[in-house]
Amino acid sequence: MISLPLTVPSNYHQDFITRYNRLTEYNNKTLLFAADHLIEKDIQQQPQHLFTIAREAQLSMATQTGLISRYSLPSTGEKATSYIIKLTAKTPGQIIRGTDPFSTPLQTINELETFLNHNGSIISGIGLTLFIGSEYEEKMLSFAAKTIIQAHERGLPVILWTYIRGNKIKPADQITLLPFAANLATSLGADFAKLQIPEENLEQYEMLLLKTKSCAGNTRLLFAGGTKTEPKELFKKTNYIVHHLNWDGGAIGRALFMHSTDSACLIAQTMTKLMAGQITYNEAIAQTKQISQ
User: Fold this and answer.
1) Is the pLDDT of residue 9 over 60?
2) CATH domain 25-290 topology
């Protein structure tokens, strides 16, 4: 069921629905390839590797406009790669300086007018990051609120990276504030919210994560892949979050691009089949025997 916001004009309804369906194609679940790391992290990866994975695995890929414009590859099959334009970013320099996180606007929707007019068919949506608890929270909040409306007015769904992070934020806050993060994302009108959940012992946070799902309302919740790249752990997390807690999918980056292209594609294909209920958890684990670094 598509939640069509009132901020989407009637002449853009079909564009929005087409893009939304593309993002939820795995039996109404989502697997997003989060590939904004070339700015966000000091990972020193070849850009072509990321785009090859997106094309071969036929995933929707979130990254910056500059990379999309330079490295977008022609489709090798019937389904073209689609992209989420990540409009905000920060660099590791903020950590070096010791400042609170601030995801800086790189462009606005209006500044992308020409790009969208010529490449709209491969763009599935817009991505933004908001850091709850940062001293710059108000600036990010204002930009996100305005951008979500502008994106909807162009028929573009929005994924909000809704993170709880700041120099005054304690580790416990990053967990207890998850329901609030979901409330915030849906209050801003985001169509999807990507949240960072605990990387260990998920079962002990079951009630909190169920409450987080409830607080999201009709905004779809995606779990962040986190720092670990071990496929068995990823499949276990996916099975628990998607099938036990009924979250709407995941957005993963390092768990794919830290592997070879072949292994990354196998991981992605296994995850989408697991999400869609086409294979069982045990069948997904069996696939790990074929995965190499």
Assistant:
1) yes
2) TIM Barrel (3.20.20)
For the chain, what are the domain ranges? 25-290
The pTM assigned to this predicted structure is 0.95
Rounded alpha-carbon distances, angstroms, from residue 61 to 115, 122, 139, 259, 292 = 17, 10, 26, 16, 22
CA 60 – CA 2 distance, rounded (Å): 18
Give the rounded percent of residues in the chain with a pLDDT score beyond 70.
97
Give SS3 for 68: helix
Question: 73 with 55: CB under 8 angstroms?
Answer: yes
Distance CA(49)–CA(37), nearest Å, equals: 12
Read off the pLDDT of each residue in 154-171 and give the average, rounded to a whole number.
97
Q: For the chain, what is the largest distance between any 2 Cα atoms, rounded to a whole number of angstroms? A: 49
Q: How confident is the model at residue 208 (pLDDT cuts 50, 70, 90)?
A: very high
Yes or no: say if 227 and 199 are a contact pair by the CB < 8 Å rule.
yes
